[in-house]
């Protein structure tokens, strides 16, 4: 698989072990919440609840990518996550209509201790950090 | 004629599941905090998770299974006090955390292994408090 680069430090090792664990917990929390919302009250706020589920799926992809050292996929997932939390965070504060009322990303992840806001930055830093040391080794 | 107990005499009084849910939640939270403390001690000592800690996690998991059964009954029979499906969903979600985290932590043989177990145990303890909030006792 061209996505895996053995020369680099695996993204799921050392501190990355913790990063993946936190991603996994958030993936579980967001997905469970999304499934519950979509299954029980989809018609109340379809946009918000489908977004909730989508956020959960993004976290699942990010978790698996980081855990299995699929760096390119991880870059994509974490970047989408960052765009998501910032966009939904702003929109939920401005409060446009019924837009994202209850999702992990609402108010920049306030309901989850702002972890959803911090996590993508840590994720991108970790991807950069683990990628860089490998490049040095190759040089 | 006025029915003295409002026509409800035909139905048996509802089982007070709250009398089981609350002590179970407190027990799980306490066990999780103990496990988290143990893991934190290992972080300080720069050690990886050991098998005995996983057995500790299995004990928590066993109590969680009991709680899941109770919450499942609650969701199936319906309760006027609480959203049984939400409660059940919370417990089912929690069932996944420790086994996955334990496997993930155990494969890493550095102190980060213990950090993972610490975070996972704290998460379950926190979710038990959220569960009590849903139940309406906190």
Features:
heterodimer, A: 139 residues, mainly alpha, 70% helix, disordered C terminus, B: 138 residues, elongated
What does this structure look like?
The complex is a heterodimer of chains A (139) and B (138). By secondary structure, chain A is mainly alpha-helical. Chain A is 70% helix and 0% strand. Chain A contains four helices and no strands. In chain A, helix 2 runs antiparallel to helix 3 and helix 3 runs antiparallel to helix 4. The two termini of chain A are 22 Å apart. The C terminus of chain A is likely disordered. Chain B is mainly α and 138 residues long. Chain B is 74% helix and 0% strand. In chain B, helix 2 runs antiparallel to helix 3. The radius of gyration of chain B is 19 Å and the shape is elongated. Chain B starts with 17 loop residues before the first helix and ends with a helix. The mean pLDDT of chain B is 88. At the A-B interface, helix 1 of A face helix 3 and helix 4 of B.
H/I helix tally of chain B: 4
In N-to-C order, the SSE pattern of chain A is: HHHH
Distance between the termini of chain A: 22 Å
The low-confidence runs of chain A, each spanning 5 or more residues with pLDDT under 50, are 135-139
SSE map:
The complex is a heterodimer of chains A (139) and B (138).
Chain A lengths: L14 H27 L4 H22 L3 H24 L20 H24 L1
Helix pairs in contact in A: 1-2, 1-4, 2-3, 3-4
Chain B lengths: L17 H27 L6 H27 L6 H23 L4 H25 L3
Helix pairs in contact in B: 1-2, 1-4, 2-3, 3-4
């Amino acid at each position: 698989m061209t996505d895996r680069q053995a020369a680099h430090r695996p993204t799921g090792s050392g501190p990355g072990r913790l990063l993946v664990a936190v991603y996994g917990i958030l993936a579980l929390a967001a997905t469970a919440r999304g499934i519950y919302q979509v299954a029980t009250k989809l018609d109340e706020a379809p946009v918000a609840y489908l977004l909730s589920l989508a956020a959960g799926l993004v976290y699942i992809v990010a978790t698996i990518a980081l855990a299995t050292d699929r760096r390119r996929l991880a870059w994509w997932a974490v970047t989408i996550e960052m765009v998501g939390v910032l966009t939904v965070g702003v929109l939920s504060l401005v409060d446009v209509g019924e837009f994202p009322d209850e999702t992990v990303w609402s108010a920049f992840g306030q309901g989850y201790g702002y972890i959803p806001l911090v996590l993508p930055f840590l994720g991108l830093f970790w991807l950069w950090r683990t990628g860089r040391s490998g490049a040095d080794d190759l040089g | 004629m006025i029915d003295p107990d409002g026509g409800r005499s035909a139905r048996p009084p509802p089982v007070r599941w709250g009398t089981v849910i609350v002590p179970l939640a407190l027990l799980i939270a306490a066990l999780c905090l103990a496990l988290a403390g143990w893991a934190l001690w290992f972080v300080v000592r720069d050690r990886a998770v050991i098998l005995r800690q996983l057995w500790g996690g299995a004990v928590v998991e066993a109590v969680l299974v009991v709680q899941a059964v109770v919450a499942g009954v609650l969701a199936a029979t319906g309760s006027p006090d609480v959203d049984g499906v939400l409660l059940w969903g919370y417990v089912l979600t929690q069932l996944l955390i420790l086994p996955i985290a334990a496997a993930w932590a155990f494969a890493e043989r550095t102190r980060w292994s213990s950090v993972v177990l610490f975070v996972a145990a704290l998460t379950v303890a926190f979710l038990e408090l959220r569960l009590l909030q849903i139940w309406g006792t906190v």
